[in-house]
Write a structure and sequence with these properties.
Elements lengths: L3 E5 L5 E4 L3 E5 L17 E9 L4 E7 L3 E8 L2 E5 L4 E4 L3 E6 L4 E7 L6 E8 L9 E6 L2 H4 L4 E5 L8 E2 L5 E8 L4 E3 L5 E8 L1 E4 L3 E4 L3 E5 L5 E4 L3 E8 L6
Parallel strand pairs: 13-14
Antiparallel strand pairs: 1-20, 2-3, 3-4, 4-11, 5-10, 6-9, 6-11, 7-8, 7-10, 9-12, 13-15, 15-22, 16-21, 17-20, 17-22, 18-19, 18-21
């Protein structure tokens, strides 16, 4: 496989707007379908959502999906038909395995402030598994200036939460100006600038909301130009591969 680097700018994402939701989609989602933009590697959904105070997604179904939620600002209340409930906040990693079928709702926990979060979906290795839920808090100090493995199913990874996919892992970092990290080397990599401004070695500046899709990555350097937060999917396979 030839190495490629494809930059997808924030302004090119499809957008869903309602009275309470501003959602920006990195891939085809809902009414926004583009046959040339359905996934990268194993990543099917990378939604960048802002939900107004006291509002949110009413109870709805999912099936056979690993759903990872990462809150950037505010608090998101989760409740599902398996009896799991809680409030997700910055630094708390959350994964819901929809498995054989689950209902859940996601609401802004605050009635005064919006909540901003990124929700990401990958398909599990096996369909029809028992629905599940996991959350784990990651210490702020661990996230500052380095990559932390938030969620992974890759054997040997020490991750905050597990994924039912042995070829996928999510890493995160909060970077101050001048901080730099080396990207994982992998057959497929997806880098999303959740906050701030970054300089990618050999490619230039990435602004908030920009994403980069790599194949056959070589561990190049990513440096912060401003206070930033980055989400990186390392994937060792692709859908159908």
């Amino acid at each position: 496989m030839a190495a490629t680097v494809t930059i997808r700018r924030a302004g090119d994402r499809a957008v869903t707007r309602t009275s309470w939701l501003h959602s920006r989609h990195s891939f085809s989602f809902g009414d926004h379908y583009d046959p040339d933009n359905t996934h990268h590697g194993l990543l099917l959904v990378n939604n960048d959502d802002i939900v107004e105070p006291g509002k949110g997604f009413d109870t709805h179904p999912h099936r056979d999906m690993e759903i990872v939620t990462w809150v950037l600002q505010g608090e998101l209340a989760h409740r599902d038909s398996a009896g799991n409930h809680g409030v997700v906040y910055p630094g708390l990693a959350q994964r819901m395995s929809a498995g054989s079928g689950i209902l859940h709702s996601e609401k802004n926990h605050s009635f005064t402030e919006p909540v901003h979060f990124v929700q990401m979906w990958v398909i599990p290795d096996e369909t029809g598994i028992m629905p599940g839920y996991q959350q784990h808090e990651i210490d702020d100090a661990a996230l500052n200036g380095r990559l932390v493995t938030v969620a992974s199913g890759i054997p040997g990874h020490d991750a905050a939460i597990t994924l039912h996919n042995r070829n996928a892992a999510l890493h995160a970092a909060r970077l101050r100006p001048g901080d730099a990290v080396a990207l994982p080397a992998a057959p497929y990599l997806h880098v999303f600038v959740a906050k701030g401004r970054l300089d990618l070695e050999g490619a230039g500046i990435l602004d908030e909301g920009d994403a980069v899709r790599f194949t056959d990555t070589d561990g190049r350097r990513l440096e912060a130009d401003a206070a930033s937060e980055v989400l990186i999917w390392e994937m060792r396979a692709q859908l159908g591969g």
